[in-house]
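Human: I'm a chemist; would you kindly supply sequence and structure tokens for a protein?

Assistant:
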Amino acid sequence: MILMYFNFGSPFYLLLLLLVPCFFVCNVYTKIYYFPKLSWIHRQSPLFSWEPWLKMLLYTLMVIALAKPFVYDAQNTNNKKGRDLILTLDASGSMGQRGFDSKNRMQNKYDINIALAQDFIKKRHDDNMGVVIFGTFAYTASPLTYDLESLSYLLAMTNVGIAGESTAIGDAIMQSLRTLSYGKAKNKAIILLTDGYHNAGSTSPKQAVKKAKALGIKIYTIGIGRKSDYDVNLLSTISKETGAKSYSAVSAEALEKIYEEINTLEPSAIRSENYLNQRLLISLPLGIVVILLLFWVLLEIKHKDIEETA
């Protein structure tokens, strides 16, 4: 069930509406008229004049636009599912090798993986996702977030060698576990992709896997390139020990199929209360303002023409 809600992005600007009464009581100037007879004068309240009401309406609409009105869809998430998921990607020097994609041999392995990972992210609508990049050291490129569009953007800002030239698989897993520790989903998983052997870092893969196993976190591993290029046995052990699956991709096409298979992972209960799809409505009040201003100008022109002919 989808419910529509209305809200303001900057509601404090609505305090300007307290000045609306000034259109009736705060007179800037007073016009003086002379009549030979008092009986010719009719008492008329400004409340019955259209001009202050029009000004008040224009002012109100502009204040509302300034307050950034928007609507959003709040989907009932009682039956919605998701998980805390970390993409742990190797950015070591060997990921700069070309020829992994038969259709575009000039593109390196890392860029191919980034493109496929971004496509994978788009399909994980219910997941709370993060990214860990590793090489000689590991770091969190993005903490867990439901803003998958921003996550994809941050992923595109990384490049080969950004974390050093070596391969610290143990540190990569430990950093992924630390990033996952901020999530509250029931099920958590790591997708670790590498094309090399563990040869750096302060933590051994064995230690990291032991901790992941104790926390009940699955680690799906993907080895890319020729099997002689990376430690097949290590990746297989990591996945087996944590109750996950290990994959091997010798080409871009094979890697794409692996991401498609991982995308079928059974999700867990989602943590967020609402899934928001915001749509700004600033153009609506501003459009009405433009129409009313044009109407006012036309009335003024018509009034002047009448005065001139008289």
About this structure: The longest helix spans residues 283-309. The chain has a mean pLDDT of 84. The chain has two domains: 2-75+276-309, 81-269. The chain is about 35% helix and 20% strand.
